Amino acid sequence: MNDEPLLRVDRLSVAYRLGTGMLGGRRKVAAVQDVSFEIPKGATFGLVGESGSGKSTTGRAILRLLQPSGGRIVFDGRDVTAFGRRTPLSYRRDVQVVFQDPLSSLNPKQTVRTTIGQTIRRHRKLGGRELRREVDETLDMVGLSSFHGDRLPHELSGGQRQRVAIARAVAVRPKLIVCDEPVSALDVSTQGQVINLLTDLQRTLGVSYLFIAHDLDVVRHVSTTIGVMYLGRLVETGPADEVCTAPVHPYTRMLLDSALVPDPVEQAERRARRRALGRGGEPPSPLAPPPGCAFHTRCRWASEVCGAEVPQMTSTGPARRAACHHAGDPAMTG
Ligand SMILES: Nc1ncnc2c1ncn2[C@@H]1O[C@H](COP(=O)(O)OP(=O)(O)O)[C@@H](O)[C@H]1O
Ligand SMILES: [Mg+2]
User: Fold this and answer.
1) What is the pLDDT of residues 61-118, one digit of tens each?
2) What pLDDT, on the 0 to 100 scale, is given for residue 297?
3) Best residue among 13, 16, 58, 287 to mutate for probing ligand 1, ranked by most atoms within 8 Å of CB
4) Of the residues 55, 57, 229, 282, which should be mutated to test ligand 1's pocket, given the most ligand atoms within 8 Å of the CB?
5) Whether the CB of 100 sits within 6 Å of ligand 1
């Protein structure tokens, strides 16, 4: 039983219903389709992909902020998708979230102390001096001081605000934190500090992360395992370093090549590689996804089968999977 992952997402699908159009008929966006992955205890699963690929929707389904249209989510041996309308209090404690923008996720009229204190009191009967001490300890865990507790969110820097959001999440000792683009709004040096904080907290608390970001360079540094999403589907998963050094899916390669590098010469080389790799361009709309492999419109190895059949995730090596009709073709690894 100890080998049970903390979280198992099994063929998750989520659709958004769009307003009824003039022509009648309810239109739906298939935002997430057939997504499966696991997060072991104390590990980080990094979910990466361009904007609109379904990362946040996956996170929101796990947080039970929206109802899946298919598949199962199993947390700590419990079927989350079978919960009723009300989410059990224990699940609301065990699974916390840190969003990209703390200014909109923190109450602007509440001091940091009140915000963190409220979360603690939702799950533990603490008050007065005991609560104060607990909040101070939590602030200390995220590298803030007791006096930060008396500040309002707008009186803090972006990095400090994100530390407050992290403090609120860890205050109740969750088992999993969904971090949805937690550093995307921060400048590069602050990004590094917040990432180090998250890794330190993982070491001391043993918490697991679902770490969502559009930037593969950020994800590879925090993740044990990576999942690459494209237009609602996982296209590649595997150990973080392997996926980044030996990507199998052409889309993963494109993401790697489009990551910004400080060296202008290497940047130019990557740009050239990217041009050679595919037809580039913007991702297609999830409202009208291309048939077959959704990436085939941008892939230079696309053949007839790619436009006709959706490739399934298949094993491409130990602990590695990819959904590409041409995975392993010698022509593609050149
Ligand atoms: N509330 C919503 N209503 C309708 N469509 C939505 C809604 N939220 C997201 N979408 C659509 O679902 C798809 C996935 O979005 P999202 O999960 O936010 O992607 P990501 O986090 O990877 O940028 C996108 O096409 C997006 O436009
Ligand atoms: Mg998002």
Assistant:
1) 999 999 999 999 999 999 999 998 899 999 999 999 999 988 888 999 999 999 999 9
2) 94
3) 16
4) 57
5) no
Residue with tokens 């860890």: 170
Protein residue with its CA nearest to atom 25 in ligand 1 = 52
The string of pLDDT tens digits covering residues 22-51 is 655 567 899 999 999 999 999 999 999 999
Q: 156: how many CB neighbours lie within 10 A of its CB?
A: 19
DSSP string of 192-222, one letter each residue: HHHHHHHHHHHHHH--EEEEEES-HHHHHHH
228: which 2 tokens? 């690459």
Q: Is 54 in the pocket of ligand 1 (CB under 6 A)?
A: yes
Of all protein residues, the one whose alpha carbon is nearest to atom 12 of ligand 1 is 31
The full length of the chain comes to: 334
Which candidate, 296, 235, 264, places its Cα nearest to that of 35? 235
Parallel, antiparallel or unpaired: strands 176-180 and 208-213 = parallel
Strands 78-79 and 7-17: unpaired
- For the segment 198-219, the average pLDDT, to the nearest whole number, is 96
The rounded radius of gyration (Å) of the Cα atoms in the chain is: 21
Quickly count: other Cβ atoms within 10 Å of residue 173's Cβ: 15
Other C-beta atoms closer than 10 Å to the C-beta of 36 total 16
Lookup: tokens for 74: 């199993």
**Domains and their CATH numbers in the chain:** 37-64+84-245 (3.40.50.300), 248-334 (no CATH)
Q: Which ligand is nearest to the CA of 31?
A: 1
